[in-house]
Amino acid sequence: MTTQPRARRAFWGDIRFLIGIALVILSIVGVWLIVSSARQTTPVLQADRTIAQGEALVSDDFRVVEVSLGTVVDGYLAPQDLEPGMIASRTLSAGELLPATAAADAQSSRTTSIVIESSVGIPESVAVGTPVELWYAPLVAETDEFDPPRILVADVVVASIPETDGMLAQRTAMLEIVIDRSDVADVLAAITGGAALSVVPLGHAS
């Protein structure tokens, strides 16, 4: 009586088993890396108040918060990234994280701020950071009358609105606006020429 030789396990079957084990291990490692990355936080700056375009960025106006930003962490400024001479290149809302694109060097900025007086008061909807149009009505020479109002600067940003002191504090007609440096001469000429100035929120009729 002869015995049949035991069949050997196919080599390809062993390879598939090893590949399966490797895939399971890689899957576990991948999940672990994703969970670990989600748990990692980074300290970044968060605005405590609305910061208008052109305002200086100072540490007193920010708090440090720990957030999980993943791959976009380099797009936001940490406390050590805030340097003297930085200004807001756009308006930052209260509670907003400070993105690197919203910070600029003051020397390279094309904007500046100027204080004006509104002849018709300031709309209640206007606040710090509000984009507005600057309108003016030129004074007719040798009269006390004004020409019809027209747009002087089409896009400016409100930097600050002073308020009177006391229990019945109210807005004054003065406000500080951020404008392009190229528009400064026109605004100053309108002021010295006695024109009546007013601000209109964008999207509203004059």
TrEMBL record:
Q: Does the keyword Manganese apply?
A: no
Q: Does the keyword Membrane apply?
A: yes
Q: Where is the SAF domain?
A: 42-104
Coiled coil (UniProt feature): none
Chain segments annotated as transmembrane: 15-35
Pfam families, alphabetized: SAF (PF08666)
> What are the record keywords, sorted?
Membrane, Transmembrane, Transmembrane helix
InterPro entries registered for this protein in UniProt: SAF
Instruction: Output the superkingdom of the source species.
Output: Bacteria
The protein here is known as SAF domain-containing protein
Species for this entry: Microbacterium murale
